[in-house]
Amino acid sequence: MPYILPKLNYDFKALEPVISSNLLEIHYLKHHQTYVNNLNALLEKYQKYSGDHDLNKMVELLPAIKFNAGGHLNHAFFWESLIPVAQSKFEGAITEQLEKKFGSFDMFKEKFTSCALSIQGSGWTWLTYNVDTKNLQISITINHDRLENNLVPLLVLDMWEHAYYLQYKNVKSDFIKDIWKILNWQKINERYLKII
Fold it and tell me: What is the pTM of this model?
């Protein structure tokens, strides 16, 4: 069954002024759709070679499958983490845990921002729950790599250039500063409550 582009829970103008309709439309319909299309095409080839028992060709496809699958899954999670400005409210059990772990919400934002800005090239910054330590932590993945198995994602920020450049140019810090206005804390809290 082929992968499909997940439906957004808002229209292209809903995240303005933080993310312009033009930027969101291109990011979603061009970049994300390309990962979905590539993934489906690669999986089709993989199945063909699997039927032919051509192990070398199957192995050759695996890095590209991993890259495009990560691009698709990470973006799907990112879209769910966003909400229109008027609906973004920092509340719920996750707020207490963030303050407990990082000292305050502002200290969490500062640490998260610092990690996001430390990415050289393309990647993702995550708020995760470590099931081994039973604690929140900030994690980074490069390109479209996925998180380690012991880390449950709660929030993610896309730090690929295509996520901000059309609107914020090379000032990544402004993009990160504005993104706090459209985070879906209800969804983030819901994810957190499922694992505690």
Answer: 0.95
